[in-house]
Write a structure and sequence with these properties.
The protein is of the alpha/beta class. It has a single domain (2-41, 59-228), classed as Rossmann fold (3-Layer(aba) Sandwich). It is built from nine helices and ten strands. The protein has helices spanning 40-47, 72-75, 93-102, 113-118, 120-124, 135-147, 165-182, 193-199, 222-228, and strands at 2-11, 14-24, 29-33, 55-60, 63-64, 78-81, 153-157, 185-189, 202-207, 210-216. The chain has a six-stranded mixed sheet with strand order 6-7-8-3-9-10, with helices on both faces. The protein has a four-stranded antiparallel sheet with strand order 2-1-4-5, covered by helices on one side. The longest helix is centred in the last third of the chain and has 18 residues, at 165-182. The radius of gyration is 17 Å and the shape is globular. The protein starts with a strand and ends with a helix. The structure holds adenosine-5'-triphosphate. Adenosine-5'-triphosphate binds at residues 11, 14, 16, 34, 36-42. Adenosine-5'-triphosphate binds next to strand 2 and helix 1.
């Protein structure tokens, strides 16, 4: 589970997150939504320890994380797929995956087989450079890299941005499978409502750096969509 209490975050003098409270339940699939610029990516980066928060607290799996570094996140079971994927273009697929493994303190460092079962194309392309992969293949690699440490929480920032429809479907199926068969908590920032409804059981709506509504996806009404998502 992830619990944020009264989190404030600033870029210099500009405050982005305002007394933000958030509770992500263990085993859930949660979509964080909101218009451009409301602070969704900033929220994920704050959870990941990539941005310092000015006040408030962040607990992950009952571990206080507020003052702990980004390296502490894999230790408590969190995997992260950043916006834009951040694949190492000059390294091979296998090397990209092994970079994920390097964050581990475990002695037995190997890439779990189930990752290739989820993304067979990666096995075929193991020795190709990351930069030679299509956008959809790179996104599969980014998710796979986050999975090599067997996280129990997977956080993804707009995994479908610029991805072709058949890969979007694959990603949807993988996220549901990871949740249902591997007991993984899924948290994703998602702009597209149909995908959010297909994957998410829970929604979180943000506006101006705060959570303004949250609940079961089935309760995400047209009124809420109009008020907080329509452009
Ligand atoms: N490094 C930065 N320095 C200063 N301001 C920033 C920085 N990164 C983001 N911001 C600002 O913080 C606000 C929130 O940005 P953020 O990327 O978190 O929003 P978002 O909801 O994820 O938006 P999008 O849907 O466009 O990705 C925006 O006004 C943005 O311009």
């Amino acid at each position: 589970m992830i619990e944020l209490k009264r989190v404030n975050q600033k870029y210099g003098q500009t405050q982005i997150l305002w007394d933000l409270n958030l509770n992500i339940q263990k085993g859930s699939r949660t979509c964080i939504m909101g218009r451009n610029g409301v602070g969704k990516t900033t929220l994920l980066k704050s959870i990941m320890g990539l941005l310092p928060i000015s006040s408030g607290s962040i607990d992950i799996n009952h571990n206080p994380m507020t003052k702990r570094s980004v390296e502490a996140r894999p230790e408590v079971g969190v995997g992260y797929v950043p916006q834009g994927r951040d694949i190492f273009a000059q390294l091979t697929v296998e090397e990209n995956l092994k970079i994920g493994l390097n964050c581990s303190r475990q002695k037995n460092k190997h890439i779990p087989q189930y990752i290739y079962d989820l993304f067979p194309v990666l096995k075929e392309m193991l020795h190709r450079r990351g930069g030679d992969l299509s956008g959809g293949q790179q996104q599969q690699l980014a998710i796979a890299r986050a999975l090599v440490l067997n996280p129990n929480i997977l956080i993804l920032d707009e995994p479908n941005e610029g991805i072709q429809p058949n890969i979007v479907q694959l990603i949807r199926d993988v996220l549901i499978k990871l949740n249902e068969e591997h007991d993984m908590t899924i948290v994703l920032v998602e702009q597209k409502l149909p995908f959010a409804r297909a994957v998410g059981e829970k929604y979180v709506l943000m506006e101006k750096g705060q959570v303004v509504s949250s609940g079961d996806m089935a309760a995400l009404s047209d009124e809420l969509v109009d008020e907080f998502l329509a452009v």
